[in-house]
């Protein structure tokens, strides 16, 4: 292996096949985030389908910038596939739930654009912040991310706790009685905020078929991971989604009307939902997420550089991190989300032994083409959420398992304060999940900041680690090891 392997020119047919393999490995993760956030915003199906197309398109653009390079200031010039980081999902869902609809989308994209711009500016300084994020901090954060996201996957299977699929519904007889009383002459006006409590079991919540479909998806993923080898084993989640899609299509639960009417080609234009809105608290929230993401990316670049025999210089590391910020800025402008290097694709480089960055450039080109075909986005959007729920248990659970794996390298025996850091941070991260109304008496302006258990856990872990352990510098080897342990964390 030589550093020249990074610049190896591969024959076109083989280059396309290897690039497609990278796309398939990351595809399930790439489409999950726009589905989660789009539905949290309560957008129309056509708008969610557009988010998926925009995400695939920007994935491709940013991957090419990162792998091929764009001026000396952007691109680490290693085989890197870029995608939306799951670390941003919790805060984005919190913002979306508090600000639904197109207006919420504009606020979210404004916060993402501003965080991307700030990330580009601070990229050279991030390497000096790495000592504040040892494994006890990053492991705690990633563990809470996985736990927080599990709620999304579980609700995909059984139904959302509010709305048409809520576990309880209002008794229609009681509703009719109230309406009859209201119709009587001289009946007093209904008190403001008066509503009947839902008391009947809702047949739309957790139907038996949802259990069966999610179980089929989950079982498929388990069997593929158990018995498949090589490339197929790397796309187990995608295989489970495909099998689930076939099952729901056979059962008549998947409808292709919007796929049929969607055009074959459409240019992805920026600011589809209008000009972005900028909220300082939301910008701060997304910037904190980006700092964590860039520190993780730096470890990933070091790990990838070792695999490829090309150790990134400080200038190349800064260029790679700056591209995380640029990709996030582009993402916000083109109606999508924060971007970082996908760790499962870094693992694929080690598995295949193919280290040419042009393979990822080809993968980026394939993603751009997929993004320009609206039928692909419409097809993914037409999937019933129960299919994604079965896969979500694996995807989001693996994020939590990644945090546990990172914490496995932490010294709990001789340093008892590390256990305290993890315990308190996990507890802080659980507050919004268990008591979502804890903030009712807190000023509304800071709700987006404290509504995310991920950010509460991040601040807790960071401050407690500084209190108990100080801020000892991390070596390149420690960062590389941390990155290798976090494989699959995106």
Spatial sequence of strands, sheet with the most strands = 1-4
**Main β-sheet description:** 2 strands, antiparallel
Fraction of residues in β-strands: under 5%
Helix content bin: 55-70%
List keywords for this structure.
single chain, 490 residues, mainly alpha, two-stranded antiparallel ribbon, two-stranded antiparallel sheet, 20 helices, 2% strand
Write the layout of secondary structure elements.
Layout: H1 12-40, H2 45-68, E1 82-84, H3 89-98, H4 101-126, H5 135-158, E2 168-169, H6 172-183, E3 200-201, H7 208-227, H8 231-234, H9 236-250, H10 257-261, H11 280-308, H12 314-333, E4 339-341, H13 343-352, H14 357-371, H15 374-381, H16 385-407, H17 416-434, H18 447-450, H19 453-469, H20 476-485
Antiparallel strand pairs: 1-4, 2-3
Helix pairs in contact: 1-2, 1-3, 1-14, 2-12, 2-14, 2-15, 3-4, 4-11, 4-12, 5-16, 5-17, 5-19, 7-9, 7-16, 9-16, 11-12, 11-13, 11-20, 17-19
How would you describe the overall organization of this protein?
With 490 residues, this protein is an all-alpha fold. Helix content is 66%, strand content 2%. It has helices at 12-40, 45-68, 89-98, 101-126, 135-158, 172-183, 208-227, 231-234, 236-250, 257-261, 280-308, 314-333, 343-352, 357-371, 374-381, 385-407, 416-434, 447-450, 453-469, 476-485; strands at 82-84, 168-169, 200-201, 339-341. The protein starts with 11 loop residues before the first helix and ends in a 5-residue tail after the last helix. The mean pLDDT is 81.
TL;DR?
By secondary structure, this protein is an all-alpha fold.
């Amino acid at each position: 292996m030589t550093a020249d392997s990074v610049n190896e020119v591969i024959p076109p047919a083989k280059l396309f096949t290897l690039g497609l393999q990278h796309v398939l490995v990351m595809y399930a993760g790439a489409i999950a985030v726009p589905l989660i956030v789009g539905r949290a915003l309560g957008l129309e199906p056509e708008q969610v389908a557009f988010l998926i197309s925009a995400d695939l398109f920007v994935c491709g653009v940013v991957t090419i910038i990162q792998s091929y390079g764009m001026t000396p200031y952007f691109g680490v010039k290693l085989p890197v596939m870029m995608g939306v980081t799951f670390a941003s999902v919790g805060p984005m869902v919190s913002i979306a739930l508090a600000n639904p609809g197109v207006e919420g989308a504009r606020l979210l994209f404004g916060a993402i654009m501003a965080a991307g711009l700030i990330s580009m500016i601070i990229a050279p300084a991030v390497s000096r912040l790495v000592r504040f994020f040892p494994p006890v901090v990053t492991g705690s954060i990633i563990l809470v991310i996985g736990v927080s996201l599990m709620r999304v996957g579980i609700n995909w299977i059984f139904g959302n706790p509010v709305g048409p699929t809520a576990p309880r519904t209002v008794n229609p007889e009681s509703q009719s009685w109230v309406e009859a009383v209201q119709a009587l002459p001289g009946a007093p006006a209904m008190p403001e905020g008066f509503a009947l409590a839902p008391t009947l079991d809702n047949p739309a919540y957790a139907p038996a078929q949802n259990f069966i479909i999610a179980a089929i998806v989950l079982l498929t993923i388990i069997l593929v991971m158990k018995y498949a080898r090589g490339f197929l084993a790397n796309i187990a989640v995608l295989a489970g989604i495909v099998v689930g899609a076939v099952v729901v299509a056979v059962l008549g639960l998947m409808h292709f009307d919007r796929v049929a009417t969607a055009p074959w080609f459409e240019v992805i234009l920026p600011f589809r939902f209008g000009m972005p809105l900028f909220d300082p608290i939301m910008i701060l929230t997304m910037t904190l997420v980006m700092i964590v993401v860039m520190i993780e990316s730096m470890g990933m670049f070091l790990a990838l550089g070792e695999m490829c025999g090309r150790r990134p210089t400080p200038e190349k590391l800064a260029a790679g991190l700056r591209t995380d910020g640029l990709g996030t800025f582009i993402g916000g402008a083109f109606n999508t989300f924060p971007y970082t290097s996908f760790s499962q694709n870094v693992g694929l480089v080690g598995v295949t032994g193919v280290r040419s960055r042009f393979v990822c450039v080809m993968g980026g080109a394939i993603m751009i083409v997929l993004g320009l075909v609206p039928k692909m986005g419409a097809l993914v959007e037409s999937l019933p959420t129960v299919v994604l729920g079965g896969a979500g248990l694996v995807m989001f659970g693996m994020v939590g398992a990644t945090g546990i794996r990172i914490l496995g390298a932490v010294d709990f025996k001789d340093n008892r304060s590390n256990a305290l850091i993890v315990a308190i941070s996990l507890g802080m991260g659980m507050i919004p999940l268990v008591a979502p109304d804890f903030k009712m008496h807190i000023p509304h302006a800071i709700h987006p900041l404290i509504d995310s258990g991920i950010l509460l856990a991040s601040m807790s872990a960071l401050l407690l680690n500084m209190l108990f352990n100080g801020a000892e510098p991390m070596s390149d080897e420690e960062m590389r090891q941390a990155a290798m342990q976090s494989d699959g964390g995106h």
